[in-house]
Amino acid sequence: MMWENSHNNAVSNAISRDRFEHVMTNIHCCDNDNLDTNDGLAKVRPLFDKMNQKCSENAPHVKQHSIPYFGRYPGKQFIKGKSVQYGYKLWGATTFYGYIVLFEPYQEQDRK
């Protein structure tokens, strides 16, 4: 768990581990009654859309990114030949300096 592996005094003095876990279990990005059933990432889609809107710039470079994940989740990908073989795949547009300005999580089926 992130809280256990990396200790940061500024964070641990501001919020306790139990309070952090309580906030993370109750945070929502969208209304659960109006979810798009064709989108596997519908619960976090508004977060991706807002970040993409705020971070867009001109002349990006498109690149595939991998986020390591070894747990159970149907959206997890096996990427042969990569240092991170199991995890989530993201398509990201980056600036010349490497800043991510647009990203889209890979899904097996496109959103309709």
Automatic annotation (TrEMBL):
Residues 1-111 form the PiggyBac transposable element-derived protein domain. Signal peptide: none annotated. The lineage of its organism: Eukaryota, Metazoa, Ecdysozoa, Arthropoda, Hexapoda. PANTHER family: DDE_TNP_1_7 DOMAIN-CONTAINING PROTEIN (PTHR47055), PHORBOL-ESTER_DAG-TYPE DOMAIN-CONTAINING PROTEIN (PTHR47055:SF3). It comes from Popillia japonica (Japanese beetle). It comes from the Eukaryota. This is Transposase IS4. GO terms for molecular function: sequence-specific DNA binding.
